[in-house]
Design brief:
glucose-1-phosphate adenylyltransferase activity; seven-stranded mixed beta sheet; 2 domains; nucleotide-binding; Spore Coat Polysaccharide Biosynthesis Protein SpsA, Chain A; 9 helices; UDP N-Acetylglucosamine Acyltransferase, domain 1; eleven-stranded parallel beta sheet; NTP_transferase_dom; 402 residues; alpha/beta
Length: 402
């Protein structure tokens, strides 16, 4: 039985700009928003949009991601026909290849797509925070008679040169594509979310793979080839919340925006468009009588005895009495001991912040950067970690890292 549209989710990115957070973790598996991981967003969008078949293309550090996805049950994707499938590179009769680019990753999985004989394929990114109705996007694609459609957002003109840009006419038909141009002709930034007619995509993937000069990339190769051949290409305007969380600053900022849904546009409390995730299995959180909590998200299993302000605490975080946490993203299982000060930073999973240590310590007049501490790191008693430090190793008692 054919599927109308299936999703192919690119989740193999290394996420090198997240430094210590992705040394042992694929970027789509990075925790976000208290109880989620980044990949929860495209998976939840799929099920909320009526897409029940998703191929997840993994490559870099896939163990945690594979374990997290499991059989897809948290997203209602544990189906007998369809459901979620993890698709790593594998050895074939012709040899074994890593995914060489975004287009090559889809090319290597043509047999998986053909199992479902879809009319349309939507290509998704596993490293964005976005709540989007893909069924509305597909409706646009059909109404335009498109062969390829790309989701775009208007960005400020002064920032346009940072993006891949679509130049479109008054009917949203794409007439030109610019990849991070010095002199942009448009401010319609590609979100990296595409809908293709499957017959068209298959043809161009095969042609691209046969070209030894190709980078096997959608932005650099497939889209320019479609334009060259005069294909029906359209830009779908998306006006909701979308953020590429590929840097420390953008990841921290997106977590902070979760605490202000009325102004930021990202509402995780929306019952009409839920974001699903795997349950931690922990007990409810406990806030002691001496604790102070202000405008923060406190998740399952947390035990709070100190002061927490404008922060996101993931499952099982412990904040001991006398500790001070502010403007911080603190991932699961971390312990912040008595007297410690943790401000304006991202702390990865299973970290220990020693007594009276300071993370994100900022002297008067210093730049307000985001300090980052990698998973499993121990910060010794009385140690000081500066506002822009990237820590992926244990820090001794009283030591200073700037």
């Amino acid at each position: 039985m054919a599927k109308e549209m299936i999703a192919m989710l690119l989740a193999g990115g290394q996420g090198s700009r997240l430094y210590a957070l992705t040394q042992k973790l694929a970027k789509p598996a990075v925790p976000f928003g208290g109880k989620y991981r980044i990949i929860d967003f495209p998976l939840s969008n799929c099920v909320n949009s009526g897409i029940d078949t998703v191929g997840i293309l993994t490559q870099y550090q896939p163990m945690v991601l594979n374990e997290y996805i499991g059989n897809g049950q948290p997203w209602d994707l544990d189906r007998l026909y369809g459901g979620v499938h993890v698709l790593p590179p594998y050895q074939k009769a012709s040899g074994s290849d890593w995914y060489k680019g975004t287009a090559n990753a889809i090319y290597q999985n043509i047999p998986f797509i053909e199992r479902y004989n879809p009319e349309y394929v939507i290509i998704l990114s596993g490293d964005q925070i976005c709540k989007q109705d893909y069924s509305d996007f597909l409706r646009f694609h059909k109404e335009k008679g498109a062969e390829f459609s790309v989701a775009v957002m208007e960005v400020p003109w002064e920032e346009a040169s940072r993006f891949g840009l679509m130049v479109a006419d008054e009917n949203d038909k794409i007439t030109e594509f610019q990849e991070k141009p010095k002199n942009p002709k448009s401010n319609l930034a590609s979100m990296g979310i595409y809908i293709f007619n499957w017959d068209v995509l298959k043809r161009y993937l095969i042609e691209d793979e046969a070209d030894p000069e190709s980078e096997n990339d959608f932005g650099n190769n497939i889209i320019p080839s479609l334009l060259r051949d005069g294909r029906e290409m359209y830009a779908y305007h998306f006006s909701g919340y979308w953020k590429d969380v590929g840097t420390i600053a953008s990841l921290w900022e997106a977590n902070m925006e979760v605490l202000d849904p009325e102004h930021s546009g990202i509402n995780l409390f929306d019952d009409n468009w839920k974001i699903y995730s795997r349950n931690s299995g922990m007990t409810g959180h406990k806030i002691s009588s001496e604790a102070e909590v202000e405008n923060s998200m406190i998740t399952d299993g947390c035990r709070i005895g100190g002061h927490v302000k404008h922060s996101v605490l993931f499952a099982g975080v412990i904040v001991e009495p006398g500790a001070d946490v502010e403007d911080a993203v603190v991932m699961g299982g971390t312990v912040i001991k008595a007297g410690a000060v943790v401000k304006h930073c991202i702390i990865a999973e299973n970290v220990v912040i020693g007594e009276n240590a300071e993370v994100g310590a900022m002297p008067e007049g210093a730049e307000n950067g985001v300090a980052t501490v990698g998973a499993g790191v121990y910060i010794g008693d009385g140690a000081k970690i500066g506002p822009n430090a990237m820590i992926d190793h244990n820090v001794k008692d009283g030591e200073v890292e700037w």
